[in-house]
């Protein structure tokens, strides 16, 4: 409707403009006609003046002749009258000349000739009066008068001819102006008639449309009323004075008010709401809509006080009702019983709390399981590592010791995989990124798995072809990725098989590592699940090869955490597999001076306070540390450790975390009050939270049981030199 009104206004404005333009054109053309007619009349008057001028000269000439013939003075009356009239007509002609209506040269010539004629007449009259008729006739016979009169007739004739031509042009101009005026009048009249016809039809249509719109409005209003009465939510409508004008049956049920009772009442009287906790009155959404001029909703924990005083939790929203011009003239409030939703929300929160509690219990279980599994492995690995380098063990037993140590390492690796999986799932995997030589990492991992490839007579070929082979990542985690991939290839490749390891820069700015084996291969179904935790192909594969199915899933997570990608391919069962790992490359780090690492025993003998409540682990650790040249005193509790710390001076504290009468976290703080020595945590708890708590307590390094001989030695060296790990 606003658009229709705008169009109507525009059309009326156009029509008014046409009418005004027509009136102006009619006026202009009328003025043109009047001007042309006025000039015609004026030109005709000039012609009459020219004729009268000639007539006046003729009258003077007639009076002159009568007097010459009779000598009677009365015959001079035409002469005298004509001479006066001639002067008047000449003055009028001069005025028209000054106005531009007559030719200046011709009028001047006429005036000159008229004066000559009057002079000639005067001379003849004087001769008649003074010398008689013969003297006068002598003047006439000279012919000057006739010659002058002929010239006068010629000049006046020329002027008259010019005026006639002008009249012809003026008549044509008047005719054209008259035609134009008539045409403009006719066009304007036609346009007005057409506009009146159009206006009539338009008004009729608008009336019909308005009637149809009113009918449709009534229908929509009825439909809206039925709809609002039928919907499941409560609906309440209020006017600008917040007085209720509509309520559906759901609103009646929720508020306890019938529409007949609520109609005309203030909304705040019927829709009473308070905060569930504070019991403070909450501003009515309807009043808030009028105050803010926008859609609003209730805050959480709002209850509706029904007419009988009972309460029901609700959720609602209010919105302004606007007219076609956007002006607010009411508000609609939609609200609903929130009891079921609130109960479901509370149930969901309880379920969430239960799930979080279960997750914490699971983490605690994993941490405890890790500790309980690692603790008995620690003395075993420590003892086996000592036997491997000891000259006291017979050479024939060395392979068996290596085999036992390798399998114990595998058990420790499985525990680490479980913990890594938990860290990855919780997003708490920490990385120490640096620029590293990827080829060096590959070679170091190959050295680790080489004994296993040799044991199975696997032909291992290595082609490190990548020109750009420096990457930015956590070297330990990247080695773990490759260790899992290489171990997977060795595990599923039969005796006498092949494994090909190759690097390249096929993709610009990336280093690609391909590990291709001739092993059991994968079906498409197994290939789709190869990176899924606890998946290891079919049941027979699991029974035959064992394992938890975590290696490749952890490898994928660690590769992606370091900014890389990993993918698997296989042409089918018994056709081998190919795993591809890709990392963005970096420029090589600037050359720096290298410190030759210490090898063999410690650079200096340290006095170490070893705190371990597990007797086997304590005994094995004491032997390992003593073999490294250190002097060891062992304690099995916080109290015994504090006694030793108060009695002797130490260079280093190596402590378990879980102790009978406290924790290593408490111990390190107490010991460092007595003597500020560095400390290394030695524990079976390896979760990220455990490592962080150790750092916060003051430990310079955290080692997870079972301890690798070389790692323990390197950590002691670093911590004693002031380098935390």
Detailed description of the structure:
Helix content is about 60%, strand content about 15%. The chain is an alpha+beta fold and about 725 residues long. The two termini are about 80 Å apart. It is elongated and about 195 Å long. The chain has four domains: about 1-200, Four Helix Bundle (Hemerythrin (Met), subunit A); about 230-335, PAS domain (Beta-Lactamase, 2-Layer Sandwich); about 430-585, Histidine kinase-like ATPase, C-terminal domain (Heat Shock Protein 90, 2-Layer Sandwich); about 605-720, Rossmann fold (3-Layer(aba) Sandwich), CATH 3.40.50.
Characteristics of this structure?
five-stranded mixed sheet; alpha+beta; 725 residues; Heat Shock Protein 90; seven-stranded antiparallel sheet; 4 domains; Four Helix Bundle (Hemerythrin (Met), subunit A)
Provide a quick synopsis of the model.
This protein has 725 residues and is α+β, with helices and mostly antiparallel strands.
> What is the radius of gyration computed over CA atoms, rounded to a whole number of angstroms?
62 Å
Helix/strand/pairing category: alpha+beta
What count of structural domains?
4
Q: How much is the average pLDDT?
A: 80
Low-confidence stretches: 542-546, 592-602
In terms of topology, how is this protein built?
Elements: H1 2-70, H2 77-98, H3 104-131, H4 133-141, H5 144-230, E1 234-239, E2 244-247, H6 249-255, H7 259-262, H8 267-270, E3 272-275, H9 285-292, E4 296-297, E5 302-305, E6 311-322, E7 328-337, H10 339-389, H11 398-426, E8 433-437, H12 438-455, E9 459-464, E10 470-474, H13 475-491, E11 498-504, E12 510-517, H14 524-528, H15 539-545, H16 551-561, E13 565-570, E14 577-584, E15 607-611, H17 615-627, E16 631-635, H18 638-647, E17 652-655, E18 658-659, E19 662-663, H19 664-674, E20 679-683, H20 688-697, E21 701-704, H21 709-720
Parallel strand pairs: 9-11, 15-16, 15-17, 17-20, 20-21
Antiparallel strand pairs: 1-2, 1-7, 3-5, 4-6, 5-6, 6-7, 8-10, 11-12, 12-14, 13-14, 18-19
Helix pairs in contact: 1-2, 1-3, 1-5, 2-3, 3-4, 3-5, 10-11, 10-17, 11-16, 12-13, 13-16, 18-19
């Amino acid at each position: 409707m606003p658009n229709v009104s705008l169009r109507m206004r525009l059309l009326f404005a156009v029509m008014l403009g046409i009418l005004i333009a027509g009136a102006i054109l009619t006026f202009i053309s009328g003025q043109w006609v009047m001007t042309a007619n006025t000039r015609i009349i004026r030109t005709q008057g000039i012609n009459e003046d020219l004729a009268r001028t000639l007539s006046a000269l003729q009258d003077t000439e007639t009076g002159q002749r009568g007097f010459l013939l009779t000598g009677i003075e009365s015959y001079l009356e035409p002469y005298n009258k004509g001479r006066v009239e001639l002067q008047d007509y000449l003055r009028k002609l001069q005025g028209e000349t000054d106005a531009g209506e007559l030719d200046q040269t011709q009028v001047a010539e006429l005036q000159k000739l008229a004066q000559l004629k009057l002079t000639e007449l005067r001379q003849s009259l004087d001769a008649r009066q003074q010398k008689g008729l013969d003297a006068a006739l002598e003047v006439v016979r000279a012919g000057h008068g006739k010659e002058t009169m002929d010239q006068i007739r010629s000049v006046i004739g020329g002027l008259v001819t010019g005026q006639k031509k002008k009249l012809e042009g003026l008549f044509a101009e008047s005719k054209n102006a008259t035609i134009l005026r008539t045409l403009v009048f006719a066009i304007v009249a036609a346009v007005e008639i057409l506009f009146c016809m159009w206006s009539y039809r338009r008004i009729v249509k608008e009336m019909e449309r308005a009637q149809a719109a009113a009918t449709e409005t009534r229908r929509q209003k009825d439909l809206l009323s039925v709809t609002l009465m039928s919907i499941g939510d409560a609906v309440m409508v209020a006017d600008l004075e917040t007085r209720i004008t509509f309520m559906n049956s759901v609103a009646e049920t929720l508020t306890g008010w019938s529409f007949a009772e609520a109609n005309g009442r203030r909304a705040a009287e019927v829709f009473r709401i308070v905060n569930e906790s504070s019991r403070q009155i909450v501003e009515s959404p309807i009043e808030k809509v009028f105050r803010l001029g926008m859609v609003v909703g209730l805050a959480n924990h709002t209850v509706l006080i029904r007419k009988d005083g009972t309460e029901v939790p609700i959720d609602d929203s209010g919105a302004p009702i606007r007219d076609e011009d956007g002006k607010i003239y009411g508000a609609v409030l939609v609200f609903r019983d929130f009891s079921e939703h609130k109960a479901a929300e509370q149930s969901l929160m309880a379920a969430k709390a239960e799930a979080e509690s279960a997750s914490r219990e699971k983490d605690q279980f994993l941490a405890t399981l890790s500790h309980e599994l690692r603790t008995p492995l620690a003395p075993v690995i420590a003892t086996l590592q000592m036997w491997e380098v000891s000259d006291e063990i017979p050479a024939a037993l060395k392979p068996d010791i290596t085999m036992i140590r390798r399998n114990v390492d595998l058990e420790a690796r499985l525990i680490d995989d479980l913990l890594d999986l938990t860290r990855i799932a919780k997003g708490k995997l920490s990385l120490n990124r640096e620029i590293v030589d990827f080829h060096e990492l590959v070679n170091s991992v190959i050295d680790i798995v080489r004994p296993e490839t040799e044991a199975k007579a696997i032909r291992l070929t290595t082609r490190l072809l990548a020109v750009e082979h420096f990457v930015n990542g956590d070297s330990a985690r990247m080695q773990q990725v490759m260790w899992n991939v290489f171990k997977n290839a060795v595990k599923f490749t039969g005796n006498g098989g092949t494994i090909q390891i190759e690097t390249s820069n096929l993709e610009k700015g990336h280093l690609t590592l391909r590990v291709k084996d001739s092993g059991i291969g994968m079906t498409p179904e197994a290939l789709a699940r190869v990176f899924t935790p606890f998946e290891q192909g079919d049941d027979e594969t699991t029974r035959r090869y064992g394992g938890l199915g975590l290696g490749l899933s952890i490898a994928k997570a660690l590769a992606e955490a370091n900014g890389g990608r990993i993918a698997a391919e296989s042409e089918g069962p018994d056709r081998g597999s190919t795993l591809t790992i890709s990392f963005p490359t970096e420029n090589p780090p600037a050359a720096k001076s290298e410190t030759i690492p210490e090898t063999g025993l410690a650079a200096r003998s340290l006095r170490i306070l070893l705190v371990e409540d597990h007797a086997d682990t304590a005994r094995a650790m004491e032997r390992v540390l003593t073999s490294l040249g250190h002097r060891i005193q062992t304690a099995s509790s916080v109290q015994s450790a504090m006694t030793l710390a108060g009695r002797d001076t130490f260079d280093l504290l190596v402590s378990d975390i879980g102790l009978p009468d406290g924790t290593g976290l408490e111990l390190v703080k107490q010991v460092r009050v007595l003597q500020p020595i560095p400390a290394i945590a030695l524990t079976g708890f390896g979760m990220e939270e455990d490592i962080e708590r150790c750092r916060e307590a003051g430990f310079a390094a955290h080692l997870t049981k079972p301890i690798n001989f070389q790692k323990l030695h390197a950590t002691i060296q670093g911590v004693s030199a002031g380098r935390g790990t």
